[in-house]
Amino acid sequence: MSAQTTARHRVVVIGSGFGGLFAVKKLAHEDVDVTLVSRTVHHLFQPLLYQVATGILSEGEIAPATREILRGQPNARVLLGDVLDVDVEARTVTFAGEGTTTTLPYDSLVVAAGAGQSYFGNDHFAEFAPGMKTVDDALELRGRIFTAFERAELASTPEEVARALTFVVVGAGPTGVEMAGQIAELANRTLRGEFRSIAPSTSRILLLDAADRVLPPFHPDLSRDTQDRLRQMGVDVRLKTRVTDLDGTGLTVVTPDGATKRIESETIMWAAGVEANPLGRLVAARTGAETDRAGRVVVAPDTSVPGFPEVFVVGDLMSLDKLPGVAQVAIQSGQHAARTIAARVAGRPVPGAFRYKDKGSMATISRFAAVAQVGRIRLTGFVAWAAWLFVHLLYLIGFKNRVTTLLHWAISFVGRGRTQRAVTKQQIVARTVIDRAEKSAGDQREHDVSGTVRA
Amino acid sequence: MSAQTTARHRVVVIGSGFGGLFAVKKLAHEDVDVTLVSRTVHHLFQPLLYQVATGILSEGEIAPATREILRGQPNARVLLGDVLDVDVEARTVTFAGEGTTTTLPYDSLVVAAGAGQSYFGNDHFAEFAPGMKTVDDALELRGRIFTAFERAELASTPEEVARALTFVVVGAGPTGVEMAGQIAELANRTLRGEFRSIAPSTSRILLLDAADRVLPPFHPDLSRDTQDRLRQMGVDVRLKTRVTDLDGTGLTVVTPDGATKRIESETIMWAAGVEANPLGRLVAARTGAETDRAGRVVVAPDTSVPGFPEVFVVGDLMSLDKLPGVAQVAIQSGQHAARTIAARVAGRPVPGAFRYKDKGSMATISRFAAVAQVGRIRLTGFVAWAAWLFVHLLYLIGFKNRVTTLLHWAISFVGRGRTQRAVTKQQIVARTVIDRAEKSAGDQREHDVSGTVRA
């Protein structure tokens, strides 16, 4: 790998999600050399992951290759790797990719490694209830959802059919609402007529949350509208309900009146919590910064780490002003960090504190129905859904992805089809495999880099 | 699962590829009940698998859900399952799917289980050199191909770069030629400008075959045209070259002059041989039929098993008249078996011997170049390529798949993009996982069904 000229200011960006990518792009015309390090080859458009999980879109459309996106930015390069360590004194980042370990020097560092699913300490839930944060998650869920119907068709007793056709979504934020709505559409519309022994519309779809309403970040009117629509679609919404245990045959919950109840289900998805990437704790340990309860790094108002003005933490990994871990926060904070770096390099006044511009929130419920709020404006129904489509198309990177996504939406929303129903062996065995592979890679890493790995 | 009325003739079809699917469809208006048993939920359009492996198409477009295809055929039902045994005396099929074991009675049976990759006895090659017969294969290859370029970008020595950028395709039939051509296009065109340390066009792409020309089933003029084009694209075509060993760092070959040579490569794909699904040997063992060297069942002229006129073997699993394992043979033999069954049920004269109508062969080499032959007519270049596109679109099942495939072709062939470059953890760890999962499932099966499993 060629060395970069030391004359130019070197920026290293960790992560190829919204925060990292938009930080890199914001530096396109600045006198800096940018290296983006990511553990995926692709930039993931998370808001549409649920459409991969339910067969509307292929993973390719929401996960374009990062280096293809940045091809036209000469001062940027992309390297595949998993960050092992950050040395904030020597100003280097060490990462491992494809069997190679590399140490990169930086003048400025933007840590945008994001967040993963949180099981609130019950990590063993993950094997039975995939989250919705990565392409692997979505593909695994897709396999489980579609084979659940196959299982029901093969079942010989009504109890087996019922258990196979019971779907549970834990977490009634936008992701959970979207998944529940889509499974209801699969059951009631898409799969109708395809089976001979079962009626897919007899599926039970449960949406659970410990909160007292769905979509807690939204205005209560929109929560109510969403809940009504979900119920009309046959989704059983259970609020003030807490999950205490979970395994391959179902879950145990505590109901609003305090009773313990068992729900039998073989297809459970977890959309209930997020926790920061472990890099958050690493950066905090190295810099003395604090982390919040989710592991996010508490930053200064300009998104830099207190005492380390050249190190920035943005997006889902950042804890600032109680900002939520949503796409707009990641985009804007990433851009803010980049503008700050650029200003310093050019000798311009720095932008100062990061001021988040809330451009609103949206969540889709079903075909032709969504909720959206921007300031005091609230939209529901078809208008909200059209707005949702428009905004998501706008932010989807890549012209060709937009075209194919539009086409798939026409197919799935106007038509009734799903073009992505292939189920591979990879998907079914994914969870245990990935865990096993990651564990042995982690053990190996501990062995290799014992001196520099964080405590 | 509901029992079917015993009044109607019951047809069981094993396999959802070309042979099985077209057999089922041919029986749509007959007085029979058809059950299609398949171990995948999808019908796989194999000829376009190489486009999944190289990022042009998503797996969904070439693998639509079988039960969606057959939704409108009331006398057909689809069940997911892996066939464990066929009892030709009792006329039952036993299969396991999603934890359930089912035994189905039949009046007629069509075995269309297809073929898999053959490593000519060297099954350990499979871990390092995926084949091209399933969606899992294609996705795994896609992951390996795209991460090979990532590895090269990270490499620190020229030797590492060279090894990462050496791609070997074993087998110069249509599949191998198509793969080699596509990787050359990736290296020379698609990925150009996306890397900073390497030039993808410096990739070495080798296409090996023990035969003395590429595309052996084609006319020698077309073989020569293909070889010329491949060489112009920078593909190193090595004929009369036999692979004797293969591992994670390369392969050992015997060159035309008898010398042994080592080729260093970390990305090897195997398109060199096919062997019949093990169900072929099972059926042969149960019926006393013979199998050929590839494990295919030698059938009577009407595709039935000698001595068992109600059992048919079609497609890649069938050995008849030296017919090759190509899509048209599978389609036509599947339809012939169905017509024979239908005639008997209706009391009509049976069609008699299966007469294959050779509708020609085609193989694509690169963008705008293919070869095609129909009888004495031979086409090359752009005309052949246009014909190839047209024919494949025609046979791709599902209107929406055709539309999205056309769109992706426009993107990849007119434009230079690939919309499907996502690499997931599932893909990378797939091979060892699937093997391990299949092995434990196989062991479990041996344990469960010890009395009925074939020798």
UniProtKB/TrEMBL annotation, chains A, B:
Top-level EC class: oxidoreductase
Family: Belongs to the NADH dehydrogenase family.
Record keywords: FAD, Flavoprotein, Membrane, NAD, Oxidoreductase, Transmembrane, Transmembrane helix
UniProt-recorded Gene Ontology molecular function terms: oxidoreductase activity
Entry protein name: NADH:ubiquinone reductase (non-electrogenic)
EC assignment: 1.6.5.9
The UniProt record lists the keyword ATP-binding: no
Ranges where the FAD/NAD(P)-binding domain occurs: 10-334
